Amino acid sequence: MNRSVPWALFAGSAFVLAPTPLWTHYRQLLGLTDVEVTTIFALYGGGVLAGLLVGPASCRLLGARRVVRFGLLICLLAAADFVVSADPVGLLVARTASGLGLGLLSAAAAHVLADGPAGARALTAATHGGVATGALGSGLVVEPFPWPLVTPYVLAAAGMAVADVAVGRVPAPARHECSPAPPVAKGDTRRSAPLVLVSGLLGAFATNWVFGTVTVNASHLVLVQGLPADGIVAGALVAVMQLCGGLGQLAVGRRTAAGPLPVLCFAAGVGVVVISVFCSWPAPLFGGVAMVGLGGGILLRRAFAAGAFGNGWTRRAPALAFYSGMSLPVVGGGWLADRTGLAASIALSGLGAVAVAVASRLVHTASTVRARPSPLSTHCYSAAHDDGSPTAALATFVVRPPNASPPHDGIQPMDTQKVKADILELEDRRYQAMVDNDTKALQELLSDELVYTHSNATRDTKHSYLDKVTAGFFVYHSVEHPVETLVVRDGLAVLTGQMRARVTNNGVERQLDNACLAVWAKEGEDWKFVAYQPTPNQG
After folding, report:
1. CA 272, CA 256: separation in Å to the nearest integer?
2. Which of 98, 208, 405, 457 has its CA 20 to 30 A from that of 79?
3. How distant, in Å, are the alpha carbons of 309, 422, 438, 444, 493 from that of 529?
4. Digit-coded pLDDT (tens) for 329-380
């Protein structure tokens, strides 16, 4: 399923930006004011937040595949609502539903993919590539094709339907995000984690304040400047901003991200956009939104990195701040536009967003702290672990001071992030071998000292377990194994999570629903599976 998930997220992201060049049409067709348009637009952010909040629990309960498909289904229903809606209430429902669907898609994709830099880059590329494609593609079909308020949604729905079929056809167990926790090397730059988080939240809020303002007003901006083919130009304008945002998250080095350049680039881009609007000078408009996208993308990367140092609400805080930025401030901009005009509204909104971004930089500068020798430091963010992946866990609780000796004298610290990725891959191989009844692969993966405990409290050794698999005593029809935690120490890896399976046990078909603990140990140059302990979930 892993390869199909980015395409599902790409298709959903493309759909939610399909209305970008259509807001002017809705204004004219339904007689909407600026504040009504921005309210309909901003409710999408509330839908995304709802999806992101319920998505992780839904993945654990139902499995990531079902959540991906359910998110696509909600987006398909929203597309149908956009097509048939002829009043503001219908648009409001469709827009909110599209946000909910994308939020579920994003949460499920992170559940499956964000266990390392490669997965996080796939998430970022799918999201920014999708929204850029949706905005530009919609602009391309609005002008030359009939039914401009129908065609973009039909094409987006077709893409989501294909993605749904792909997700449904590829059998693979779901995998949960696991955070790398590498040791802090001597000489790392350390910062106060709470202040870094506040800085990141301010940056995320400012970024989507401008992203949302430009997106909802793109066709209006192009129209008032007298540019031809306003739908295509509006779509291209948003596409450039989003692509540059993705570039800022993926291609900029850690030192650059930690410096003042993101805020300077963001502020300069806002200034160029404001000047272009006030002077009715369209030439620099694309350059301005490109600078906004690049600077905002780097600020987003820093926000997600800061949020990754903790768990629960701390991890969700950057997304909450990001989508809050496109809600109330954007609606406020619509209210201003109704009273002062579009140019003044853009200028005031841009000034407010720049002020928040500057505050983000000031808080980030104030976050530098001196590392104090102590046996346990739990509130320092190490910038050295930021590998550039915005949705991976790029920061961590620091559990050893920088001058602490490595455990077991003479043994060098492992590349923990790589080890975790290797262990997750081995777990996938083990479960796939169980489903495939591949005893040769199991023979290679299992330790000779294996202790395999079953949910009925019986135990098997490696040899007795393989004998039962070979004889058909255990037949695994399907398995899901979301991982919840993964702890790595020198030569040892301990996973906790869930194991849900349909199995035939001694001729009797059963449905397993267990919390489980699995242990891998380094034996020579290879990792071997040494212990397993399931506990049936209650109810």
Report:
1. 22
2. 208
3. 29, 13, 15, 10, 10
4. 777 877 777 778 878 888 888 899 899 989 988 888 887 654 343 333 333 3
